[in-house]
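Whiteboard transcription, Tuesday session. T.W. wrote the structure tokens on the left side:
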């Protein structure tokens, strides 16, 4: 079947086979390699995207259900360069591996879109679904607090 939705502001038509996940279609049909497949079970957040205004695990979404939706991947969170969150993460050395970082950027970008001055608790809550087993999250939280404090 063909599924039509908006991806990072552009309308796309994707070929979808049966029960394919939105993650598989984004990567394999549409060339969006930012969302990563790690756990495939909705546990790690490496496949995070924004679907109709909510951060979701794209490994758990049926691609067929994206018909008519608005989808944003990490490729679409900034237009023409890095956004303030990405800049702050670079500055603080908060960039982890290519699996966890895209999902963290998506979740954080969505948080700041709706809460430009989040508290530390709100930052932690927004990242609760993004697992990195290699960090204490200190640099990530410092980076996001610097954006919240207007330093970025
Ligand atoms: S790959 Fe989707 S949550 Fe881990
Ligand atoms: S999972 Fe990405 S650095 Fe730990």
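and on the right, the sequence the group agreed on:
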């Amino acid at each position: 079947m063909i599924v039509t939705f908006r991806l990072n502001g552009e309308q796309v038509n994707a070929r979808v086979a049966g029960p394919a996940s939105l993650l598989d279609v984004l990567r394999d049909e549409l060339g969006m390699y930012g969302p990563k497949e790690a756990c495939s079970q909705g546990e790690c957040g490496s496949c995070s995207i924004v679907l109709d205004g909510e951060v979701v695990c794209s490994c758990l979404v049926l691609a067929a259900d994206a018909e008519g939706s608005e989808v944003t991947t990490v490729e679409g969170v900034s237009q023409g360069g890095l956004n303030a969150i990405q800049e702050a993460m670079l500055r603080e050395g908060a960039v982890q591996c290519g699996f966890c970082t895209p999902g963290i950027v998506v979740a954080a970008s969505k948080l700041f879109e709706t809460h430009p001055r989040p508290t530390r608790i709100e930052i932690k809550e927004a990242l609760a679904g993004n697992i990195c087993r290699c960090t204490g999250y200190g640099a990530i939280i410092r980076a996001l607090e610097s954006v919240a404090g207007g330093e970025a």
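Someone added at the bottom: The beta strands are 2-7, 10-15, 48-51, 54-57, 70-72.
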